[in-house]
Fold N-acetylneuraminate synthase.
Amino acid sequence: MNSVFIIAEAGVNHNGSMEIAKRLIDAAKEAGANAIKFQTYKTENLVTKYAEKANYQKVNTGIGTQFEMLKRYELTYKQFEELKKYCDNIGIEFLSTPFDCESAKFLNELGVRLFKVSSGDLTYLPFLEYIAKFKKPIILSTGMSNLGEIEAAINIINQAGCNDITLLHCTSSYPAKVEDVNLKAIITLKEAFKLPVGYSDHTEGIEVAIAAIAIGATIIEKHLTLDKKLEGPDHKASLSPNEFKFMVDCIRNVEKAMGNGIKKCTKSEEEIKVKARRSIVAKRKLLRGEEITFEDIEFKRPAIGLQPNEVYKIIGKKVKEDIEEDEIIKIEKISW
């Protein structure tokens, strides 16, 4: 099984502060994430000046417009250059979701290895086409969508020359209710599109992300915050550094537990196998030349002689040399 790619979603949890952004990078690295992801956008290219906030954004950031909120958290390209360099220096992959073509062009020139497209832009086909022309892998989040919309997005990306796509199943609510997650959609997406499928988790806790691994998710994306009490739209639906590290550790353990699917006795089971399984044992003293019947034998631990599944081979065979009562019958004492 290939290692699950774990993305620490910083998003705008830096609250516009480079100090917080770098601390998030440090926390993601310490937790064992493969990558940390931010959001790169020009507010003017993303939202109208009077766009209303989503309800969860109102709860977490108060009154005002989306424009005002996003502008407050917008980082400059120069700041992203600094964050990319910081990530390179400590050894964690820098990623950022672009929300406009200008930002996508900047990230490509910055040298990102792949592009993540948000669920909100799955139907923004001209944008998908623009990103696909960079010929870099695309992680396509599928929150709020149906199979037809996903198919159209995949088609436009393929037509633009990109065939390296990973879908992310996602429920775009913050936090997402477990009853709305529908993890089996991961299987549906894999079967429908024959593509790798990951999971972008907005639920509270880590159990849903762990379950996603067990049904084949190749990527896990989860929000990371330094403090859930900080002001901002996503902090409350994020994991603390300690929680994120625990999730990563659990994912790595689940990966090991998944194994290769071959059913066999493991090395660690060999000793128990001898102790727990049974041998064919003489129920009474068997004399040389006697013919063995079912009435002459029973089955007891340990498994160091003939096994119970070999019983039909010895019924009717003759004893080569005397076998004592309660002695485990071994092959060399049977005339074949």
Remarks:
- Residues 241-258 form the longest helix (18 residues).
- The chain has two domains: 5-258, 267-335.
- The longest strand covers residues 5-11.
- DSSP finds 13 helices and twelve strands in the chain.
